[in-house]
C-alpha cells in the first residue's frame, strides 16, 4: 500500500463552504480513472511476464492508484451526497473497455511502454499539484498533496525501468519522442471523457467530444505557468533531453501559450 492511507486523511475537517462545484465534477471523473489502476497493473505484469521484480513494483503501483481513486471517490461522496462512486465506477467499466489482458505493449517495446507510463505520471503529478493549489477545500487539498507526491514517485519508478530497458532495447531519441507525443495526444481520448460522462452526465447519451471538452475546460483552468514548466522538464528528461536547458524553457513557454489558448477557447464554448 501507499505511504499514506485513507485513515490518515482528516475527513472531519471537510468544509462544505469551500467547495467549488466545477472542481467536484472533475474530481469525480479523475477518481474513476485512478480506481481502474489495478487493470493497468495487470497489463504491465503481462508485458513484463518474465520480470518478477518489475511485476512486484507494478502491483504495488496499481494498489497506490486504486487508493487514489478511493480517496477521491470518498471525497466526492462527501461533496455530493447523491454521488455513488461504486455505481459510477460500474458505469465507467461497462462503457470504457480496453484489452488489459493483452501481453504486448501498444508502444512496440518495453522501453516505449515505460516512456508512455512516464508521460502519464507527468500528467498526473502536474494535475494533482495544480488541483492542490486551486482547491480551497482543506480535505481535498490534503488528498491532492498526498497523491501528487505518489505520482512523482511513480514517474521515478518508470524512469528507472526505462533506463534498464534501454540497456537491452534500442529506442533512440526520435523513437522516445514519438511515443511521448502520441501518449500526450491520447490524453484527449475516451478514458477521461468517458469517466467524466459516467460520473456526471448519465441523463443523456455519451458524446466523446462534448465530454472531453467539458472535462478539459475545467481541468485546464487549474494550471499555472510553473505547473507546466515542471511537467515539460520531466517530459524532456524522459525523452533524453536536458530538462533545464534553453530548449526546455522555450518548450515550456510554448506549452503554456498553447494551454492558455485552449483554455480560453473552451471557456467561451457552450457548456
Ligand atoms: Fe494516481
Ligand atoms: Fe501514478
Textual characterization of the structure:
- The chain has 271 residues and is mostly helical.
- It contains eleven helices and no strands.
- Helix 1 crosses helix 8 and helix 3 runs antiparallel to helix 6 (138-168).
- The model has no long low-confidence stretch (mean pLDDT 94).
- The structure holds fe (ii) ion (2 copies).
Any key phrases for this structure?
271 residues; mainly alpha; 11 helices; binds fe (ii) ion
Largest sheet: none
- Helix/strand/pairing category: mainly alpha
Query: What's the Cα radius of gyration?
Result: 18 Å
What are the secondary-structure elements, in order, as H or E? HHHHHHHHHHH
Q: pLDDT under 50 segments (min length 5)?
A: none
**Mean pLDDT across every amino acid position:** 94
Bound molecules: fe (ii) ion
The total of helices stands at 11
The geometry reads as: globular
Helical content stands at over 70%
Short description:
The protein is an all-alpha fold.
Q: How are the SSEs ordered, and which strands pair?
A:
Blueprint: H1 21-35, H2 37-47, H3 52-79, H4 85-95, H5 110-134, H6 138-168, H7 173-185, H8 190-200, H9 208-220, H10 225-239, H11 246-268
Helix pairs in contact: 1-3, 1-4, 1-8, 2-3, 3-6, 4-8, 5-6, 5-7, 5-10, 8-9, 9-11, 10-11
The protein binds fe (ii) ion (FE2) (2 copies).
One fe (ii) ion (FE2) is lined by residues 65, 121, 124, 151, 154.
Amino acid at each position: 500500500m501507499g505511504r499514506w492511507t485513507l485513515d490518515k486523511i482528516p475527513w472531519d475537517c471537510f468544509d462544505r463552504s469551500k467547495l467549488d462545484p466545477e472542481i467536484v465534477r472533475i474530481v469525480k471523473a479523475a477518481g474513476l480513472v485512478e480506481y481502474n489502476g489495478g487493470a493497468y497493473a495487470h497489463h504491465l505484469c503481462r508485458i513484463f511476464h518474465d520480470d518478477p521484480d518489475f511485476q512486484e513494483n507494478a502491483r504495488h503501483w496499481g494498489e497506490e492508484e486504486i487508493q487514489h481513486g478511493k480517496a477521491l471517490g470518498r471525497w466526492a461522496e462527501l461533496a455530493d451526497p447523491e454521488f455513488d462512486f461504486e455505481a459510477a465506477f460500474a458505469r465507467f467499466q461497462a462503457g470504457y473497455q480496453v484489452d488489459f489482458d493483452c501481453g504486448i505493449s501498444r508502444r512496440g517495446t518495453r522501453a516505449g511502454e515505460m516512456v508512455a507510463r512516464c508521460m502519464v505520471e507527468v500528467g498526473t503529478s502536474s494535475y494533482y499539484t495544480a488541483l492542490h493549489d486551486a482547491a480551497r477545500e482543506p480535505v481535498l487539498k490534503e488528498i491532492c498533496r498526498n497523491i501528487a507526491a505518489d505520482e512523482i514517485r511513480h514517474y521515478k519508478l518508470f524512469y528507472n525501468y526505462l533506463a534498464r530497458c534501454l540497456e537491452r532495447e534500442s529506442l533512440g531519441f526520435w523513437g522516445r519522442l514519438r511515443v511521448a507525443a502520441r501518449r500526450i495526444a491520447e490524453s484527449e481520448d475516451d478514458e477521461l471523457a468517458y469517466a467524466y460522462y459516467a460520473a456526471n452526465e448519465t441523463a443523456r447519451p455519451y458524446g466523446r467530444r462534448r465530454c472531453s471538452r467539458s472535462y478539459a475546460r475545467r481541468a485546464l483552468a487549474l494550471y499555472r505557468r510553473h505547473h507546466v514548466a515542471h511537467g515539460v522538464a520531466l517530459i524532456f528528461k524522459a525523452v533524453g533531453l536536458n530538462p533545464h536547458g534553453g530548449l526546455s524553457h522555450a518548450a515550456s513557454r510554448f506549452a503554456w501559450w498553447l494551454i492558455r489558448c485552449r483554455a480560453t477557447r473552451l471557456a467561451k464554448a457552450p457548456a
